[in-house]
Amino acid sequence: MRSLSKRFSDYFLLVVYDGAPCHSEGALALPENVRVISLPPYSPELNPCENSWEDMREKFFKNIVFDSLQTVEDQLVVACNFYEANPRILKSITGWEWILNSSIDR
User: Regarding predicted confidence, which is higher, 16 or 13?
Assistant: First the structure.
């Protein structure tokens, strides 16, 4: 979380957490520019990240056979760099009304 906070230090980051134990950092203190909200169990329809993965699969992984895990990782980096360079696209995919209109105190 700290590296994310540093990389986007000029922004307030709302991290949506799906509650999976493997995604938990435990009770670590969050940086000032980061807030985490947890989704109810078994609610993938509320997780905006699910839409970004679907878009990524369609744009960067459709009909491709990879010869190694490294080539999959390389393609994932290409995809992530694309979304980072095009935040409007990512916002259109994940910027649901309940997120854009949230009133979480900083």
Answer: 13
